[in-house]
Every structure is written in C-alpha cells, then in structure tokens.
Amino acid sequence: MKRKHSGRYRDWTQPWSSQHGTPEALSPEALRTLQEAGRRVSDQDADRQAQTSPVLEKRRERWLKVRVHREAPDCRSLETRADALRHFSQTFRDKVDVNDARLIRTFIWQFVVRVLAGQERPIRGNLRSVWYRELRSILLRLGLLHPEDVPADPEAAQCRISVGRRIASRPLGTDRGRYLLDLLEDAFQEMFLAGFFRYQDLQVYDARENFWSVGRNRGNIIMFTEKEGLFWLCKEFQARFDVTILASRGSPIWITVDYLSQVLRRRDYSNLRLVCLTDYDPWGDDIARQAHEKLSDPVNGFRKVSLKVLTQLNLFTEERLHKSKRYLLAGHESPDDPVRTVVESWVKRTGGIAGEPYGIHVDHAEPYLITQAFERWLKEESLVGSSRRRQHLRMKP
Length: 397
Known about the structure:
The chain is α/β, with parallel strands linked by helices.
C-alpha cells in the first residue's frame, strides 16, 4: 500500500528566491527593531510575554553589546586572515590573534538577521548544514581551519572506507574542528535563548520529531524518558492517559523543546507537569533537572512547570535490583575525585540502594510497576477521571 505523504515539509522543497523572501519575513520596521534592540516582533502572545522577560532582556543586551561585532562587515566578504584580524582581533599572552568565537557569533547573527528579513535561504536542515554550506569555506579561506580539522559526522567512528584492498578508518577531524563547530551550535543556542528567533523561523529540522507527541486533552502532562528504547511505553501511556510524551537520548535538545513548547502554547497551556523516567543514579537525576530547566526557561513563556521524578526503587523487583545494580564509584575511589563527591551527595539525599553507592538503569524497571506508579501519581494530584479539559481551557486546532 502506498503511504500518503503528510506534506509537512512540502514548502521546503519549493525553490527559494531572495526576490520573494518568505511569507514570514520581517517588515523593515521589525528588522530595525531586531537589529537595534534585539526584540523580535511576534503575533504570538507567549512570545510577546517572553520578549518582556527581564531574563531575556539581559541575555539580549549581553549578546548585542559583548558577544558580537554589530558594526563588522558581512563576514562572507572577508578574504584573508588580515581582514579577520582587522575586525576580530584579540590579544592573548602578548600575542595578537583572531577571536574565533566572536567572528563565528557575528557570522551567525548576520545570517539569522538575513533569514528573518527574507534575504537568505532558511536552513531547511540541521544546524550543521550552515557549517557545510557557508561557515566551513569561510574559515578555510581565512586560515582559521584546515582540511584535516574538519569534524566528522557523529557516527564516523564506526564508518570505514575501502581504499583498494586496504580498509582505512575515516578521518575523525581534530579538536580544533570540533571546537569551531561547537561555537556555531552554541551561537545559535545563545541567540535562541535570548529570544531572537524560534527554530521554526529558520526552518531548522527537528531530528527528534518522531520521539514526541502531544496529548489531545491532557497535553500539559509530559511523560519524559531519557531512554529512546522506552518510547513504546510512553506511547502506551499516551493511549491510556492522553498525555504528552517525549523520549530522548539523555537531555532533550533545545530544538525539540522549542517545537514542543510551540505546540503546547498554541493549545493555551500555561502550566505544565513534567514526569521524568530516568536512570536511578546522579546522572539520571541531572537529566531530569535539565529537562525541567529547559521547559521552565523564560524563552518558552510558561507560567509554571512542576517536576516529578518517577524513578524510585519500587519500580524494580528485588531480584532485578540484586542482579543489575551497579557500583557508582568504580574508578573513582580517590577522596578528591569530583565524581565521588557527586555520588556521595546523591546517596545522602536518596539513600542509593540499601544506603550504598549503587544505582540501576531504568531499563531494568518493570513496565507494570512504572504504570502503577504513574497512576498513583495521577490520583495524588487529583488528575484521575475524565481526561477532557475544562471548557475555559478549550484546545485550539
């Protein structure tokens, strides 16, 4: 049977021309506001509220005054290292060199402004796409990057290339290349957190879109797990309880958080309840904390986000705890090891396993016990019964 195409990205497949821009392009007045004051004009109520947040105001001010060189020429016009030094020099240990970070942040600032103004093709890919299309060639031309520095794709470590009869490992790049690519990704994140754009504005693809789904009537309850392999359980929870579900590999990425938040805001949710299913160890706790902090960030415009960490020892059978618990201080026996400090603090707060520094992956938890724990939480929060929202919280299409 031929599958029907959703057409979600159909517009991305159409030719783009700077003569036509995009339907969402900023007006000249809005563009001046963005360039001079860092305010992104929006017709979304939640966006307008976020724009007035003191936290975002401070972030924008720092970006405009410290992080970028707003008077610099178009970074694409720089031809030599001398050109880069003229506009982005810094002195470190009595040596004058190019300030890589400021140059890349300025390049991203100029790129984002052009896209929002309808003068530049949107990304229509991931953030790394910008590296391949433009930034990489600029850095190579300026002598700030060399071919051997170019970072490899994330899975290059497992990729091998046949050279005649010899099998050679694919080059993995250098720390220099990874450092410069990190600067690009960090610049986008910093601008997003200051409220300059939404990732949808730049048509950034959410590679994790198949691992989240919004509940129709209980969308403000978010069941999150750090384990992609447990997304099937999240789907079961959504079918039974009509909640929003989200799975990631560790902490959820900002792009996914942004797209999810936009859908929730369009449905008039201002208060969220985040339920986390993470590993029973300090790192699982930290991932839950990060997910909570990301959703709670003022850039998303929510009034309140509560947190419930569902993972407790009662999700595991005694036999599984005995067989699958893991010692958390292996290789960290030194008293001044920072990992030891983190583990001991966690054990003091949670009790570890039988008061000892042991943890266990949530993969070992029994699905039926997880379900029972979630149902108990719903009852404790008086969220049982009909999943339909009250009339005054009517869901928008």
